[in-house]
């Protein structure tokens, strides 16, 4: 799709990757950028239009879709990671919270905005996923499950929205320098660099962004013997 003059809505746009994407869209000439957040007062990006949106609340999603009927690009960026293994004491509660935000949230917003995208000629949906869409590691098991579900959602949406000419982009990223990885001492990708890759993929009509070396390595290792998902890294 053509970024210039598009109308975008970015969820979780008040910080981290969401803010970086919203800023990159404005710099690339987007006609309008709706910066969605649970608390719109937390959006401090000049030029963006703050929008109240809680992706886990059906009424909030409907209200945002009604408020922003001209959207041609939906970026499902909002996400949470609560750090739980499957056998932890709070595993079920944390899994439900992560699924609500990371899977049911993008499902709800995609359903709500798909008609507007169709009216605008198809447009695009970007789903921010993770390298953990493909494998599961101790301490992030429930989060990985939610991102695996979101990957399946992304692939399913691509097929269902093909008839209305909607581009659907999956973004896989490993460690990124945001609040979610604060305290983890590993090399991290800058959100601004991931945002630039997302815009380039949209312009090129691509379906997938492998935003860093880790994502590329893991994807390449899916078909290894044994597959990386069978013998994931410990830790």
How would you describe this structure in keywords?
6 helices; globular; 40% helix; Rossmann fold; 7 strands; 235 residues
Give the helices and strands, then pairings.
Elements lengths: L6 E5 L4 H12 L4 E6 L11 E4 L5 H10 L5 E4 L14 H29 L4 E5 L12 H20 L6 E6 L18 H14 L3 E3 L2 H8 L15
Helix pairs in contact: 1-5, 2-3, 3-4
Structural class: alpha/beta
Indicate the proportion of strand residues. 5-15%
How many strands appear in the DSSP assignment?
7
CATH fold field value: Rossmann fold
Instruction: Give average pLDDT, whole number.
Output: 94
> What is the name of the CATH architecture?
3-Layer(aba) Sandwich
Query: How many strands, what sense, and barrel or not for the largest sheet?
Result: 7 strands, parallel
Indicate the multimeric state: single chain
End-to-end gap: 39 Å
Q: SSE string, helix = H, strand = E?
A: EHEEHEHEHEHEH
Proportion of residues in helical segments: 25-40%
* CATH class term: Alpha Beta
The CATH homologous superfamily is named NAD(P)-binding Rossmann-like Domain
Whole-number radius of gyration? 17 Å
């Amino acid at each position: 799709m053509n970024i210039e003059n598009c109308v975008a809505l970015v969820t979780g746009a008040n910080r981290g990757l969401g803010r970086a994407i919203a800023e990159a869209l404005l710099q690339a000439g987007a006609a309008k950028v709706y910066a969605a957040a649970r608390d719109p007062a937390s959006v401090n990006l000049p030029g963006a239009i703050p929008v109240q949106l809680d992706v886990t609340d059906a009424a909030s999603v409907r209200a945002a879709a009604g408020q922003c009927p001209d959207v041609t690009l939906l970026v499902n960026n909002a996400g949470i990671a609560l750090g739980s293994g499957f056998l932890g004491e709070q595993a079920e509660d944390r899994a439900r919270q992560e699924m609500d935000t990371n899977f049911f949230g993008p499902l709800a917003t995609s359903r709500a905005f798909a008609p507007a995208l169709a009216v605008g000629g198809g447009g695009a949906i970007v789903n921010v996923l993770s390298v953990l869409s493909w494998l599961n590691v101790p301490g992030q098991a429930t989060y990985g499950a939610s991102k695996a579900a979101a990957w399946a959602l992304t692939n399913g949406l691509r097929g269902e929205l093909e008839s209305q000419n909607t581009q659907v982009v999956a973004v896989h990223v490993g460690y990124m320098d945001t609040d979610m990885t604060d305290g983890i001492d590993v090399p991290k990708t800058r959100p601004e660099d991931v945002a630039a890759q997302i815009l380039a993929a949209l312009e090129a009509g691509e379906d997938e962004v492998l935003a860093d070396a880790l994502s590329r390595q893991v994807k390449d290792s899916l078909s290894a013997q044994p597959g990386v998902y069978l013998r994931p890294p410990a830790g």
